[in-house]
Design a protein that fits this description.
This protein is α/β, with parallel strands linked by helices. The chain is built from six helices and eight strands, in the order H-E-E-E-H-E-H-E-H-E-E-H-E-H. It has a single domain, classed as Rossmann fold (3-Layer(aba) Sandwich), CATH 3.40.50.1820.
């Protein structure tokens, strides 16, 4: 099942005070352990004490968020863009396929280092990981959740966050995304953008500005 899903996606072609406000800074590479003893590498862009974890899609990596990442930091949000296990220098622990452990590790790293509130954005493969992390999180641990064309999880009913689903109306996974949305508890919102681009590929289309504003407004409301 995992191999088939990856094939579909590919075809869709530091301790201390990290939270001082200021101008956007170059990303600082950090690493931290997951609960299953893996090691996650990520780029930290420090700004305010509200933070966002970015979880990439199957053909992307932590460097792939481009101008959208800059828009988040311009709004005063600290950003932690991770490489999932098996990407870059990140390595799996005892549960090789548990990408959600990387998301939870990133959320907890931020909170341990002073973040007051942490939200998560996951795209495609990273959307499934983010959704599963929210399903496995403590109440209030993930403040808001953005699922950008997410792959499905088994029990979306367990998601414990205010969640925004976003997808393209005509993309291949649209029906499955709508089904996941229906099973997810409130508070929730679904936005379908015109077009067929999938997940992070939407940022390469003329819907990029609309998508960015939608997500930033949701996170900062």
């Amino acid at each position: 099942m995992k191999i088939c899903m990856v094939a579909i996606l590919l075809s869709l072609s530091l301790a201390g005070d990290l939270w001082s406000a200021g101008q956007d800074q170059p990303g600082l590479e950090v690493s931290f352990s997951s609960a299953d003893k893996g090691t996650v590498y990520a780029l930290l862009y420090q700004q305010g004490d509200s933070a966002v974890v970015l979880g990439h899609g199957a053909i992307f990596n932590k460097e792939s968020w481009g101008e959208f990442r800059s828009e988040l930091t311009a709004r005063g949000l600290t950003v932690l863009a991770l490489d999932f296990r098996g990407y870059g220098k990140s390595v799996a622990g005892r549960k090789p396929e548990a990408l959600y452990e990387d998301v939870l590790a990133a959320v907890r790293y931020l909170k341990q280092n002073g973040a007051r509130r942490v939200s998560v954005i996951g795209a495609s493969m990273g959307g499934g990981a983010a959704a599963q992390a929210a399903a496995n999180s403590a109440p209030g641990e993930i403040a808001k959740l953005v699922l950008l064309s997410p792959v499905p999880i088994n029990q979306p009913e367990r998601i414990r966050s205010n969640v925004l689903f976003v997808a393209s109306r005509d993309e291949a996974l649209a029906a499955g995304i709508k089904a996941q949305f229906e099973r997810t508890p409130e508070p929730k919102r679904l936005v379908l953008l015109n077009g067929s681009a999938h997940a992070q590929h939407i940022f390469k289309t003329n819907r990029a500005g609309e998508l960015s504003r939608l997500i930033v407004d949701f996170l900062t409301d």
